[in-house]
Amino acid sequence: MATNTPMMEQYLRLKAAHPDAILFFHLGDFYEAFFEDAETLARELDVVLTSRNGNPMAGVPIRRGESYVNALLKRGYKVAICRQMEDPAKATGLVKREVVRVVTPGTALDDGVLDAGQNNYLCAVYRDGSGFGLAALDLSTGEFTATAAADQDTLTGELARLAPSEILLTSELNDEFAGLVPGAVTILPKQQFDPRRVPDGQFGLPEPALCAAGAVLAYVEETQKGLVAHIQRLRPYNLATRMDIDPFTMRNLELVKPLREGEDRGTLLHVLDKTATGMGRRYLRRAILAPLLDRDKIEARLDAVATLAADEIVQQTLTAALANMHDLERLTGKLGAGRMGPLNLLLLEKSLDQLPAVARTLTAIGTLPPLLAAIAHDLSDPGITALQAAVSGMLVDQPPADARDGGLIRPGFDESLDRLHEEIRAIRAQIAALEQKERARTGISSLKVGYNRVFGYYIEVTKTHLSQVPPDYHRRQTLANAERFIIDELKGYEQRIALAQERAVALELELFTQALDRMRAEIPLLQRAAHAVAKLDFLLSLAVVARRNRYVRPRFTDRHTLAIKAGRHPVVELVEEFVPNDLALSEGTDVAIITGPNMSGKSVYLRQAALICLMAQIGSFVPATDAELPLLDRIFARVGASDMLVSGISTFMMEMLETATILNRATAASLVILDEMGRGTSTYDGLSIAWAVAKELATHIRAKTLFATHYQELTRLADELPTVTNLHVAVQEVGKEVVFLHRVEPGVAAGSYGVHVARLAGLPDRVTAQAEAVLAEFLAHAPRGPHPEHTGSDAQPVSLFGPEDHPVMKRLRKVDPNTLTPLAALELLFQLKEEL
Ligand code: ADP
Ligand code: MG
């Protein structure tokens, strides 16, 4: 490259300090990008590529800078924003420039890039000998938490729940995770993971969690370059106090994300979401992914939901008030990050405006359960009321986006400002009077006093009257058929107006800044109120849904029983006529094997049981007429042999990974639903594994288990094991037709009706007839009946698996799945297959 201009030197220096970000270089009215950055802009956002001294360059107008930044963020880029730090007109030599902020996916604050219903987490992970530490900051709200995770499964589970948009790792951990963590990865040097950065030393948090938190703070400081006053005190949390939902279960139960892209109505989140605010929606989402284990806490939520569900008028009043509320949490974030303009202050004020009414509606209910009482208390804090009063009526209805433009303060708010405006009006009146006066003095009746931005005030005289112009008129501007003049008196007015206006704008800015400072001093108070609103919105949403969808309050039992009367699937019941079903797994009955034809309703039945239990533990009422439930420590859902290929792993491999997770982690206090396990492989493989897994769950683990299967043979387990019971979904045969009753009944299904389903689906008669004949043949020659004789209590299904001493059987019997890692389990499976 040829020698650089001083400006290019400046650019290169700034760029070198931010090598992994696209540098937006403030140049006049544009942000310019150079070199590779320019090419990226051209490629990703169709910005026109030009050149400067032969180097590629691309520019975007400053006014539209934010939208370009957001578009780049969404594509996973970081943007370093470099501003001119002085007015180029006044600067001598090279204009001073600085990077004022680096915008990254995890530190975004702009509404254009944030999802209102979802937290935007910046996470950091650190590991030492004691295990993993995880910190998570949502910079848009200030929520800052950290926790410890003993093993990688726990860690990845929590990361899947948080779904960070950016994650900070050491290069060592990044190599190890090899792209298996969500979000954009930013690698930081190890010394950035410094626990001493965390203020006022947090007790109760292990070292690696503090290190992770330290990295988050370091990164925010580096990227924000300035004021961040709203990061909350680091809140430690313990994963052991929440129900552990692994990523498979999260996905299979479609808690917050549909299995198929775009079908968002299929999620539990969608059904439960009647929230009125973004903060409520975020609260609900977090709650769904972290069901509680503490019975008192659950009952406290249920008490609040019950109170709110009881009164429809209260529901409507509160919903209406909340709907008028803006995102207090994120507004407070903007305040804390020094990104609050007049428009946002107005929204903040309007939101605070709603709080007293909300608190009053709550207290008018009467005696409140503790959770609602606490919310009412936080909302009626006198500090909030004072804050609201201080800014109330301050801003005009449509303030400018930038406070420096002036014209934002409402008349009547500040006396001195009003006096200034009064003065300006008085001078303007004098100017208007001047026109009459000068017409009289000069005798030019067409003489006009006017104003333009460039020349200021003037007196305009048409060319025909130029001879009548007095000598004290000084020429200012010449037009085609007129001349414009200035006289001393007018000049005096002009100067006085300019002065008063300048003072008014400065005063407005000062009033605005004072208001912000006042608000900023109360950020913790605002955050507490925002949190109370979020929680109320969440509880109210559960109450509205409970009432609308006729849910019932679940009861928890200490016994090892699970009893649901007339249970429904919360999603399916909303889209079609639904047949409710009971479920009774009493003490001593742990595993239900569920058979029934395709399309009869097995999968729905399984999921509804899992969803009802999960809903209960987030404090929601449930779709049933009665539900007596155990307090579950975990829910596992292995549903459907989907033909999705995830990162090259085969369906069967996926299934085994998921199954391994279950067998390694489930306890007697867990609920396991297994749907069509073994489908991804050959019949005998599948059946053997299904058999072994069901038996493991029924004997060693004793988790409450629902096992839907198309392997009729599995129902024989019930004969062998007292803890296993059989259920089937009933169908009615009418001639050759099958009617799906969707009714779950005790016992074993009569047949699989696959051919009937094939007929329903419209396969040609000739083909279904052929299939029927073949099926009859198979059944006639089936080697064994449905009920083989047993050989004692620990009977193996000898007839199915061949000789007792088959080497594969021997090895299988020795295996303790509890001690196997998912990988070891897989390896073993491959070995066993080989031997077979
Ligand atoms: P299976 O797993 O037995 O093949 P599914 O559980 O997938 O069957 O159910 C198939 C369809 O039957 C569902 O998509 C739903 O439309 C309907 N269905 C299932 N259970 C019920 C029910 N209890 N009441 C009404 N319709 C149901
Ligand atoms: Mg199914």
Describe the structure.
This protein is of the alpha/beta class and 836 residues long. Helices cover 44% and strands 18% of the residues. The strands form 5 sheets. It has a 6-stranded mixed β-sheet with strand order 3-4-2-1-5-6, sandwiched between helices. The longest helix has 33 residues, at 488-520. The relative contact order is 0.07. Mean pLDDT is 88; it is low at 643-647 and 783-802. The structure holds adenosine-5'-diphosphate and magnesium ion (MG). Adenosine-5'-diphosphate binds next to helix 20. Adenosine-5'-diphosphate (ADP) is lined by residues 572, 576, 578-579, 581, 596, 598-604, 742.
Low-confidence stretches: 643-647, 783-802
Shape: elongated
Strand content: 15-25%
Total number of helices: 28
Mean pLDDT: 88
- The counted number of beta strands is 26
As laid out across the biggest beta sheet, the strand order is 3-4-2-1-5-6
Based on secondary structure, the structural category is alpha/beta
Distance between the termini: 68 Å
Small ligands present: adenosine-5'-diphosphate, magnesium ion
Instruction: Indicate the percent of residues in helices.
Output: 40-55%
Taking all Cα atoms into account, the compactness measure Rg is: 36 Å
Sheet of most strands:
6 strands, mixed
Key phrases:
836 residues; alpha/beta; six-stranded mixed beta sheet; 18% strand; elongated; binds magnesium ion
Please specify the SSE layout and strand pairing.
Layout: H1 6-17, E1 22-27, E2 30-34, H2 35-45, E3 50-52, E4 55-61, H3 65-74, E5 79-84, E6 97-103, E7 122-128, E8 131-138, E9 143-149, H4 152-162, E10 166-169, H5 171-177, E11 184-187, H6 207-224, E12 235-236, H7 247-252, H8 268-272, H9 278-289, H10 295-309, H11 312-323, H12 328-336, H13 342-363, H14 370-379, H15 382-391, H16 415-442, E13 448-452, E14 456-462, E15 474-478, E16 482-486, H17 488-520, H18 523-548, E17 555-557, E18 562-567, H19 572-575, E19 581-585, E20 591-595, H20 602-618, E21 626-630, E22 634-638, H21 651-665, E23 670-675, H22 683-701, E24 704-708, H23 717-720, E25 724-734, E26 737-746, H24 754-760, H25 765-780, H26 798-801, H27 807-814, H28 822-835
Parallel strand pairs: 1-5, 7-10, 9-12, 10-11, 17-21, 20-24, 20-25, 22-23, 23-24
Antiparallel strand pairs: 1-2, 2-4, 3-4, 5-6, 7-8, 8-9, 13-14, 14-16, 15-16, 18-19, 18-21, 25-26
Helix pairs in contact: 9-18, 10-18, 11-13, 11-18, 12-13, 12-18, 13-14, 13-15, 14-18, 16-17, 21-28, 24-25
Bound molecules: adenosine-5'-diphosphate and magnesium ion.
